[in-house]
Amino acid sequence: MGWGPLRIAAVAALTAAAGCGADVAQRADLHVGTLAAKPTGPRARAALDRSEELMMIGRAEAALEHATRAAGHAGLTPEVVRAMARANVGLGRLGQAERLLRPLAESAPGDAAVQSEFGRVLLALDRPAEASRVLRLAFALDPEDTLARDGLSESLARLGEPGYDAGHNEAFTLGHEGGGLYVLGPPS
Q: Is the pLDDT of residue 60 over 60?
């Protein structure tokens, strides 16, 4: 894939938006929900992997550069947007991370990882009501996600509501009442 004028403009807009508080969707005139998730090629994959490695050693600025490079190779795929958001969180740019994740979370309500990341960003922005709604969804989608569970407990505590009690992790029984009706019963 070549570096045509449209692609160069999109990457330039992403790069500019990543370094400031501007909304990526407006600056690049793109909407995450409308972009097809292109297959990630080897260059994009390498840039994303390097971005993740850099985040693990605390080099968020370099991680953002690599995530932006991945966007140039693969477009704004959900994986690229999440990498850019994580780097922005590492840089303390919570508003930018929210602006990256919100359209993705809205377009992928069944993606537990996206909902979990978005909910934790909202919690960091001190929006416990919205965070609890999003984290409740993330935890319902993936009950094994400890970050979503812990974030949900924290958001509920900030709201003065009882948190999630990990002591109630017993398996419920599933009963069949006929006619296609199933009910959850107490743990056996």
A: yes
